[in-house]
Amino acid sequence: MIGRKNSGNASPLLLVLLVLGFFFATYNLLTMLIHNKSSSLENWASEISDPNTVENSNFRYHVALTATDTPYSQWQSRIMYYWYKKVKDMPGSDMGKFTRVLHSGKPDNLMEEIPTFVVDPLPEGLDRGYIVLNRPWAFVQWLEKATIEEEYILMAEPDHIFVNPLPNLARRSHPAGFPFFYIKPAEHEKIIRKFYPEEKGPVNKIDPIGNSPSLLEDISPTWLNISLRMKDDPQTDKAFGWVLEMYAYAVASALHGVRHILRKDFMLQPPWDLEVGKSFIIHYTYGCDYNLKGELTYGKIGEWRFDKRSYLSGPPPRNLTLPPPGVPETVVRLVKMVNEATANIPGWDALTSG
């Protein structure tokens, strides 16, 4: 979530709350990087005040979900919104209102079901096939035109499910965000310096996050500009691939002097995270493939599987088969939560794009 620039009755010190930077990572990315997961994130956190010693602002945050009107995006958005409504008023939640920022340029058939604000996509061809570039452009337009009551914003994605009530975790001048172990600015210093000059300081001032500036209205244009510049640079485009927009957000935040409280409990990513515990969000970007013994067969289609990409053209059916015995709690919980949502959302099987 992200603090906003002063507007209406908001305080002039509008801070980023939580940056969930949850994006379209490539399907096989983790296969290459999973063994590096135990990176020294504590080094980043040590540069920031201990969050347990600073009082929370207790301000509610606005949940902003960026999405398209494709069936693939729609069914995920419906599940996400179902669970937002379930946990919004639970003890420990600081959730405020909800907006699906629809960057398709026209209303769709979810307008009455989900609170939605329509913005334009980038001009044709400008994204060069990288549809994620529409995300920063969507935020620029939404923040410029919309009336938002809350002083904090959670930037969310369709493939997020709230598994526990999420409080406002920001502390004074520091937003909070999930540390992506595969965002490694120091390993790409030569490329990063094209966008983050040496006079700004060492590269380790760039946090390993996805999206999270402190003054969102100030940083969003920078985020968009750097995303477009990175995409237009062949070396950068090749190096960062589908996480390019995440690097752009991290660099934009650093250019504005923003550092983050890094929270590993922000998000779970099945099948790699095994237990739910007190974490807040399940991010189901990776396929979950298992044999009937409950053994992970990642990279090979399993005898049992759940992969959101199996449902590109329409929603998954109701009452998906549960995983076999031995599959981790996170995967079981994910499928049960999908099943609960689809059982209770009216017209689940009938809805199509349009």
Automatic annotation (TrEMBL):
<keyword id="KW-1133">Transmembrane helix</keyword>
<keyword id="KW-0328">Glycosyltransferase</keyword>
<dbReference type="Pfam" id="PF23452">
    <property type="entry name" value="HPAT"/>
</dbReference>
<feature type="transmembrane region" description="Helical">
    <location>
        <begin position="12"/>
        <end position="30"/>
    </location>
</feature>
<keyword id="KW-0808">Transferase</keyword>
<keyword id="KW-0472">Membrane</keyword>
<protein>
    <recommendedName>
        <fullName>Hydroxyproline O-arabinosyltransferase-like domain-containing protein</fullName>
    </recommendedName>
</protein>
<feature type="domain" description="Hydroxyproline O-arabinosyltransferase-like">
    <location>
        <begin position="61"/>
        <end position="349"/>
    </location>
</feature>
<dbReference type="GO" id="GO:0016020">
    <property type="term" value="C:membrane"/>
</dbReference>
<dbReference type="InterPro" id="IPR056508">
    <property type="entry name" value="HPAT-like"/>
</dbReference>
<dbReference type="GO" id="GO:0016757">
    <property type="term" value="F:glycosyltransferase activity"/>
</dbReference>
<dbReference type="InterPro" id="IPR044845">
    <property type="entry name" value="HPAT/SRGT1-like"/>
</dbReference>
<keyword id="KW-0812">Transmembrane</keyword>
